[in-house]
Structures are given as structure tokens and as C-alpha cells.
Amino acid sequence: MKCEDICELIxxxxxxELEPKAQKxxxxxxxxxxxxxxxxxxxxCLKDRFRKGIKxxxxxxxxxxxxxxxxxxxxxxxxxxxxALDLVHWGxxxxxxxxxxxxxxxxxxxxxxxxxxxxxxxxxIVSGLSLSEARDVIMCSLPDAKKYLDKGQLEILxxxxxxxxxxxxxxxxxxxxxxxxxxxxxxxxxxxxxxAGNPCWVSQDDWDAFIDFExxxxxxxxxxxxxxxCSYSQYQCAENQISDIINTHEYILxxxxxxxxxxxxxxxxxxxx
Length: 273
Known about the structure:
Rossmann fold; 2 domains; seven-stranded mixed beta sheet; two-stranded antiparallel ribbon; 11 helices
């Protein structure tokens, strides 16, 4: 073992983290090399000084209580598949602002795939992409996607079949579609329901009714094993509509300087009408 090898291993040696064989070789080298013995001695002294200089603090009881409480609720949290967002609790309602087709699939694809991998029933309601485009991006990212499609765990639907099944938007019909699937998901042994939708079809005349529907989703899913993500085109939303969207969603996801950012909106259930 050479002196340059020793320098890379000193910290691990002092922390008793070396494999027995490596430790034996290092100690043999130290017997023969005064310079390396001095280096190890200096590092040991420095380490001891740091240890003695660090003050220990007792965590407040309230902090310990909160940590224990959150650990006990671990089953209430889900991975989103979205790197910027990571974990959310069941009942979360996410708004996703996008600028083009690529940014729809960039977020919706990992979101849906992650749900499938966590044994969730997943529904992707497509607008802004064609059904074939949505299927293709899922199939490219998930080789066994056909398995999920064939058994019905993954549904990719046109927005007209979900939001406009009666020829016009009816919030009660859309809500019933979601809860029928939710109940079926639990009955059939799935962990819960994950939905991704895109309201770029909503006209100005339908906006108030639709945003009321978005608002009602918060109370409807808050205690359910459901996740909902709504993708909005930034270019189609007026300033007042963006405000409505932010006020009716718990998490706001948008791209800034080529990186996805998340804003948490703790007042999402307090929309002023």
C-alpha cells in the first residue's frame, strides 16, 4: 500500500469502516512509514477536537412528537414520480402549468407510471395530446404498459369521454366517474386512484363551473386514497384564471429557467368566490 492510498483511507480507518483486509494492509504500512503515522495522528487529534467542540442539543418535545406522528403516517404518503415534487399525501390536488406538448408528457408520464408501480388504478384524461401520442409516450417509458392497459389498471381517455360524456360539462357526472373508479380500485385490491386531467378544452363560458368543480375536488378527496393532477396551458390562461387555478390546488408545478419548481399553497381550500 502506497502513501497516496493511505490519504484516501484515513477517514474510513478512524471511523472503523475499512474492510479487515484493507485495515491490515494500512496498519502494516503505518508500522513502516513515520510520515503516514504522523498524518493519521494529526487527523485523529483534529477529529477529537471537533467532537469535543460540538454541543449537544436536546430536541424539543413538540418536535419529537411531530416526527413520531409523521412516521406513523407513512402509509398516507405517495411518491409522485415527479422529481421536483417527490412525496405527497393521499388526497393531494396538483396543478401543472405547461407550455407545449413535451411538457405535458414530461410530467404526466412519470406521474402515471409511478402510480402503476405503486399498485394504483391510473386514469389519464387526454387533451393537448392525441390518444395515440399519450399511449406512445407511456409505452416508450414503460415496456410492459400493455399489461396494465389490458387489465384495466391504466385507462387513457379522451377528454370528451370524461368531461363531456353528455355533450356538455356536468361536474356531477365527472365526479361520479372518478368515485366509481375509486371504489372499484379499492374493491379490486388496488392501493388507490391516481388521475391526470387536462382542462385546455374549457371555454370562457364554462370556466366558472369548471373552477367550482376543481374547488369541490379538494373536499371530496381530502380523506380518500386519491391523487389528482390537472395540467393547464400557460398560454391559454388569463391572469384571473391563473389566480383561480392557484387558489384551488395544493401544489403548483411550473417550469422556471428550464427547471421544474413547486409551490405549496396552504390556502387552497379558501378560494374567494
